[in-house]
């Protein structure tokens, strides 16, 4: 079993800090969407997760679930049945992260229209040859 890290001052802005790789891995869109799906819908099988997160390929789903499991956020449970049934669920660390991510998703869903409009206005200005600010 891994030993917990001593109380270190982690800094995601430091190039060589381990927290930078943790941040980069967790900030992946598939990881966050899977985390939220498991948080909101509870334990799910692989095929259920693939249906709940539109657009994720089998390969990316497999890689993301392994990454989340490795990071201690997701638990993979194999039920000894014929055929074997595998379900994925969140561990306490995963639930804690999902609670922090939900407000970001709420902001995105509420403000996506404004962001899209800003992008379109930006693109129109730059297509017309307007100087960048």
UniProtKB/TrEMBL annotation:
Domain HTH hxlR-type span(s) in chain numbering: 17-116
UniProt keyword annotations, A-Z: DNA-binding, Transcription, Transcription regulation
A Pfam family annotated for this UniProt entry: HxlR
Transcription among keywords: yes
Matches recorded under InterPro entries: HTH_HxlR, WH-like_DNA-bd_sf, WH_DNA-bd_sf
Gene Ontology terms, MF aspect: DNA binding
Name assigned to this protein: Helix-turn-helix domain-containing protein
Organism from which the protein derives: Kitasatospora camelliae
């Amino acid at each position: 079993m891994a030993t917990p890290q001593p109380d270190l001052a982690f800094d995601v802005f430091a190039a060589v800090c381990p927290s930078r790789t943790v941040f980069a891995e967790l900030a992946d869109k598939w990881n966050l969407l899977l985390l939220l799906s498991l948080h909101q819908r509870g334990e799910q099988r692989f095929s259920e997760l693939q249906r709940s997160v539109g657009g994720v390929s089998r390969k990316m789903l497999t890689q993301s679930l392994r990454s989340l499991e490795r990071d201690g956020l997701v638990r993979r449970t194999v039920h000894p049945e014929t055929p074997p049934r595998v379900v994925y669920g969140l561990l306490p660390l995963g639930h804690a992260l999902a609670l922090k991510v939900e407000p970001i998703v709420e902001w995105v869903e509420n403000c996506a229209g404004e962001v899209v409009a800003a992008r379109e206005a930006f693109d129109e200005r730059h297509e017309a040859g307007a100087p960048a600010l």
